[in-house]
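Protocol step 4 of 6: record predicted structures for both targets in the notebook before any analysis. Target 1:
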Amino acid sequence: MVKKERTEWPRTLFHILTGLTIVSIYGLTNISRELSLIILGAVALFFLLGDLFRQFIPRVNRLAHKIFKGIIRQEEKRKIASTTYYVIGCWIAILTFPRLIASIAVLLLVVGDTSAKIIRQAKGR
């Protein structure tokens, strides 16, 4: 149990920083929606391709788990990492909603993800 808690904080911090970076760039600058979608889409594609390479090339999977030891979960060895879904979700929010609503949606994702981690830890899960 202690080992899982230790690996969750770097992961949670990574998710917080990812979400806040997206909100900072998209919500607080004059960058166009189209350019934001291209940049975030490229990041999402990079994450997705990385996950697919991990699934089909065991050496890449081992290397990824070594490099991202504190961020990637053990159970994600054989599936798409939740961070990939996280970034894709942010991309969909920007694609679907106006700037303010998309920014708030991403902030709610940051707060919700962090709150869920704290509650899980408090309940001993």
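Target 2:
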Amino acid sequence: MGSSLISNDVKSWVSSVLNRDVKQYGKKYLFDCNEETCWNSDQGERQWVILEFPQSVKVSELRIQFQGGFSAGTCRLEEFQDMVLQHFLN
């Protein structure tokens, strides 16, 4: 396992926050390494997370952990490269 690519320089956006309660469920909890906290989206289809790295990165592993027995029905991984959004993994 390599080191994490997540740092303070990585910008992030999320589709929604449960009941707009960013203090309890905001995106700051995506990468805080605390299993007692989490980002929680509002209900609905196609919830998403966008990460913007300050430089090109090579991703060798992606870990997603869902809390409380919840999980996604499907996941889709996309990249934005050379000004073009590319879908490369379901």
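Step 5 preliminary note on target 2. The chain has one domain: 1-89. The chain has a mean pLDDT of 85.
Proceed to step 6 after PI sign-off.
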